[in-house]
Amino acid sequence: MECDLEAGVRQRLAHAVAGRSLAVWEMDLLNPVEDPDHCPPSVAWVMTLDGAGRPYRLRLLHPRPVAALQALTPV
Length: 75
Known about the structure:
- This protein is 16% helix and 44% strand.
- The protein is α+β, with helices and mostly antiparallel strands.
- It has one domain (2-72).
- It has a 4-stranded antiparallel sheet, with no helix packed on it.
- The termini are far apart.
- The relative contact order is 0.18.
């Protein structure tokens, strides 16, 4: 992730949902103009929270590209 920040990639919050034991942040990834395909267009941060509401497990998930989803859909 540090190399992405050094390359100029930024994140913008798109949606957030939180509960007692889970928080999800949907982020748009903003790639630099000189490298528009550096990162996928979005990411979801899924955080499992402890009893005090602090994250203790983190997963980053990227959506499948549309072409990959279309290949799974029967015609």
